[in-house]
Model the fold of this input.
Amino acid sequence: MASSVPAQIRLLAAVFLAGLLLGAVYDALRVVRRRFGGAAAVLADALFCILFAAALFLLGMGPGGGTLRLFMPPLVLA
Done:
């Protein structure tokens, strides 16, 4: 099923916004990793990975219409 160009642009914007939010979360978790180190760093990294996977899943199932587009993972990392 083909998507319209405006729908793809909205999806692109949503993925980019998710990338900005995940970047802010990563920076906030950096404080935890540097301050506590060790096991806290591992837990912070695991939490970020879970949030990243959840964001990709929700974007793929919601605005993505059940598909994971090729541009989604790189833009979430942007």
Q: What stands out?
A: Helices lie at 5-36, 38-61, 72-77. The radius of gyration is 15 Å.
